[in-house]
Amino acid sequence: MAKMMVSPMQCQMGFPSNSLQGRPMITSKMWNSLLLNAQRPKTRRGISAFKVLAVKSENGVVSRLEDLLNLDTTPFTDKIIAEYIWIGGTGIDIRSKSRTISKPVEHASELPKWNYDGSSTGQAPGEDSEVILYPQAIFKDPFRGGNNILVICDSYTPSGEPIPTNKRHRASQIFSDQKVIDEVPWYGIEQEYTLLQTNVQWPLGWPVGGYPGPQGPYYCAVGADKTFGRDISDAHYKACLYAGINISGTNGEVMPGQWEYQVGPSVGIEAGDHIWCSRYILERITEQAGVVLSLDPKPIEGDWNGAGCHTNYSTKTMREEGGYEVIKKAILNLSLRHMDHISAYGEGNERRLTGKHETANINTFSWGVANRGCSIRVGRDTEKQGKGYLEDRRPASNMDPYVVISLLAETTILWQPTLEAEARAAKELQLQV
């Protein structure tokens, strides 16, 4: 914030003489207090439409909402606030509510189960609306600080059955299989997202009702005419690090107003927990900034890149000597279950996977080395070293990470095609395995 220097003469100008009658003049002490408040470092920054300001006077203090939000309760109580987070009825909407816990906890198993009104989230009928939350993973709360936590939960009926939108339960079964455990599956997930102006639902930085210049200058760019929303991206980056999310990087994307961050490498179901928590944090930050978060895979039709959630994947045998042959066998299996994966890789993905803008056509499976126009990309280093990982470029930005990571493990580790199907696919893909 820039300082504004005002001379005594300027302070005396522009006020009718009768407007000051009966009112105390601003003393030097009060003026210094105002300046100190303006210069005080802020712990929260944002493009918020709602600000609470306060002036410290000689007669008392007007409490600021910001002071209360940043209040550290640890010296006064052992109690903490746990924010229970779950996935709503659309399978992509995030819900949460808070409760007090008597003391700090180290693991989700120490937390009580809770319930919510499933009829209000599209997950239960009104006459039997109670849905039970099972705490599964905890993260430090970057908004409340202290010992307060964010709690990733999944949802069950009162009798203990997972509800249909609970994709974590099935994923946990796959990742509990000994064959999968032995392969130590690693995931690196690239979450793309678009920032929209609140009132017009148009990308941040775009002229209302109009378009910026063609794509080209915006990817990993710097400058006010090319980059829109960096403060949000940076705030999210730091908040994720604070929370304990395994975020590994971020960058501006090809379409202006679009960003990406990467989470991983993460092992097994942890990858899904970290992505969902990172999405929750991003929703909270955009809420505070007065910007709308979109995970639509093609937010703007036309000659603009869509938004994906590319998933990098490897197993223990892929990372060892001779792993390249294991990768090619995995690609073969993925080709045979292409439509099974596509059907589970996000809503609206057909608008993104057109064969243009660094995508493969949704109806055709393909793979290639260093080819971003393929369904599965293998890196140059992986080919050169004969081991490494593959990148599944098909998942949409709104995919459920529990579904994607468990499908990849199931298809490449647990599922075995017939010899005839394997031979036919190998010939079509020109794979020697």
TrEMBL record:
This is Glutamine synthetase. Residues 80-160 form the GS beta-grasp domain. Its main location: plastid. Pfam families: Gln-synt_C, Gln-synt_N. Residues 167-433 form the GS catalytic domain. One of its GO terms (molecular function) is glutamine synthetase activity. It is found in: Plastid, Chloroplast. Keywords: ATP-binding, Chloroplast, Ligase, Nucleotide-binding, Plastid, Transit peptide. Homooctamer. PROSITE patterns: GLNA_1, GLNA_ATP, GS_BETA_GRASP, GS_CATALYTIC. Belongs to the glutamine synthetase family. It catalyses: L-glutamate + NH4(+) + ATP = L-glutamine + ADP + phosphate + H(+). It comes from the Eukaryota.
